[in-house]
Specification:
235 residues, 8 strands, single chain, 8-stranded mixed β-sheet, 11 helices, Spore Coat Polysaccharide Biosynthesis Protein SpsA, Chain A, Glyco_trans_2-like
């Protein structure tokens, strides 16, 4: 008898008290189907972990840093497929059906297409370019809800412990095993980051950072540049 999909959804969080419960409630269908939901808190001081507990199978406390938190969740996961989901990203209704098709495929990993929640036309353009670039290059980002067979993730020793570009770095290693399984039914990511920073400014910022990464600049210096830009935008 063939093995069936057993999914572990891993959500790294930090100071998400205002929205964590409504987000986790959106995943009730996943838990009702017998799959696992793991929240990994990076040391929030606003009660995020306590609020998440009733809506999760496990709430873990790990070192702050998305890569570190996701690795912590993966270490504790019991499923045969890991899905890494940001706390501002919603899965499509048919996500489990799509992931079952992935599980019976020959691919080792994959991601969803993405759309942004905002209604402005620029957000549709941004999403189109993100999805098109990903299909051409095979590289996925965290906003696209990456998923991977657990055995493969562990064999590759998970995400590199870097402060930025951990999703791109892992994608490059996964591409050596297979092309990503691309699900066209999109996840919906909150567009607040683009709205707060300015859509065009955020587009250019992300492309600049990615270009500098491809040229060999360290993730640490890129993370510093990103934080400085965000602080400037908030001031």
């Amino acid at each position: 008898m063939s093995e069936s999909l057993s999914l572990s959804v891993i959500v790294p969080v930090w100071c998400e008290a205002s929205s964590i419960q409504s987000f986790l409630q959106s995943l009730r269908q996943v838990r009702a189907a017998g799959h696992e939901l793991i929240v990994v808190d990076g040391g929030s001081d606003d009660g995020t972990a306590e609020l998440a507990a009733p809506w999760s199978d496990q709430v873990l406390i790990g070192d702050k840093g998305r890569a570190l938190q996701m690795n912590t969740g993966a270490d504790a996961a019991r499923g045969n497929v890991l899905l890494f989901l940001h706390a501002d990203t919603l899965l499509p209704d048919a996500a489990l059906e799509h992931l079952q098709h992935f599980f019976t495929s020959q691919e080792q990993w994959g991601r969803f297409d993405v759309r942004l929640s905002g209604q402005r036309a620029i957000f549709r353009v941004v999403a189109w370019f993100m999805n098109r670039r990903s299909r051409l290059t095979g590289i996925a980002t965290g906003d696209q809800a990456m998923f991977v067979r657990t055995s493969v993730f562990r064999a590759l020793q998970g995400f590199a412990p870097i402060p930025l570009m951990e999703d791109v770095e892992l994608s490059k290693r996964l591409c050596s095993l297979s092309r990503p399984y691309c699900i066209g039914d999109p996840v919906t990511t909150d567009s607040r980051r683009w709205e707060q920073g300015g859509a065009w400014h955020t587009i250019f910022l992300m492309w600049r950072l990615r270009w500098r990464y491809w040229r060999g600049e360290s993730p640490e210096s890129l993370a510093a540049a990103y934080r400085a830009d965000v602080r400037h935008a908030d001031s």
